[in-house]
């Protein structure tokens, strides 16, 4: 942690302490509007909490649209909000490295809900390990079998690292279901008087997630498996690619973070792979500069997709972007990928249309 960040957190902690001593800091849950005071970390988690909490909560989301949890540091004002909260909802799985220091600086003494606890993380580790294997096909059956089972038989020739976990769990609508359920149960435990409402809203939202998953799967099923080749800004969409039988050829930035630095050798290897597999398009994310994608695209002949076609992965879009909700962002990402491959997606099912 650099000295500037350390000084800012110390200052924020001093502000929180001073307000608390002077009586200016609100007690947890206190507000003219009432309701459980909830702070969510990322934009995706904030959307899940909003869908489940409804009017029974007062929600603050720390990250802004277009921002990334990989290099986020809360402001003093946000630390004050956290210190007053009853509930903190985090994505988890190691995504938000700032959470523990934020809790300490803010004096937060409420309950933490970790959305990732609603997911089989061993299964997620298997998918992560599979995605890191050179030449991994990501080509799996999407049958709607019991439990939407994603378990895959392990190849005896590979020794997977079960400790590695891609933290971008929400990119799979199936995993999003588990995160929503975990949030609903956490809110219900903290606020039994409104438990039925939390669970009812979670049920309704999970039904939409299932409908979204079915629609996305049907769209990618129209693309021959050999043509589902994906190159992205960073390695953030492993679970989405796994669910829909898409093969990752590589990413511009190494690893799971969107601020990593690739070596010249890594870029050369990626360029060679794009040429070898005749990849049609390079996709960039809204949180990443498109300059490197443009450079690589010009050397390979692939199209580079940026601007309004950027994928929303680490964060949702701004209000009015059409990607300011999880459902909208996932639809947008799916349409952008398919259209870059020359496929016009089917209309959304009626239950997913905005009302």
Question: Would you kindly provide a written description of the structure presented here, covering whatever features stand out?
Answer:
The protein contains 11 helices and 8 strands. The protein is α/β, with parallel strands linked by helices and 355 residues long. It folds into 2 domains: 3-118 and 174-209, Nitrogenase molybdenum iron protein domain (Rossmann fold, 3-Layer(aba) Sandwich); 121-163 and 222-352, Nitrogenase molybdenum iron protein domain (Rossmann fold, 3-Layer(aba) Sandwich), CATH 3.40.50. The strands form 3 sheets. A 4-stranded parallel β-sheet has the order 2-1-3-4, sandwiched between helices. Helix 7 (195-220) runs parallel beside helix 11 (326-340). The longest helix is centred in the middle third of the chain and has 26 residues, at 195-220. It is globular and about 60 Å long. The termini are far apart. Residues 1-8, 10-32 and 134-162 have low confidence and may be disordered.
Layout of secondary structure:
Blueprint: H1 3-22, E1 36-40, H2 43-53, E2 57-61, H3 76-84, E3 87-90, H4 99-106, E4 111-114, H5 121-131, H6 173-190, H7 195-220, E5 229-234, H8 238-243, E6 247-253, H9 264-277, E7 281-283, H10 291-300, E8 303-305, H11 326-340
Parallel strand pairs: 1-2, 1-3, 3-4, 5-6, 7-8
Helix pairs in contact: 1-3, 1-4, 2-6, 3-4, 6-7, 7-11, 9-10
